[in-house]
Amino acid sequence: MDDTKSSPQNQPTPEEIALRAHGYYQQENFPENRDLEHWFRAERELTEERSSNTPPSPWPPESGAGT
After folding, report:
1. Stated pTM of the model
2. Rounded CA gap, 24 and 35, in Å?
3. b/e for 31-60, b at 16 or more Cβ within 10 A?
C-alpha cells in the first residue's frame, strides 16, 4: 500500500498552511473573500513540495532586494 500523497509526514501543519496563506493574502493587497482559495493553495503547494522531496520555497518570497 503506497499512500505517499496522504502520508502524515507529507502533510503540512495548520500553522505552516496559515503562514503561507497569510502571505498570499498580503501579496494580493488583502482581498476579501479569498481566504479559502489562499488556504487550499498553500496546503496544495506545501504538500507537493514535501511529496516531491524538493526544498520548500522561501517564505515570505524574496522580493527585489536592493531595488
Report:
1. 0.69
2. 9
3. eeeeeeebbeebbebbbeebeeeeeeeeee
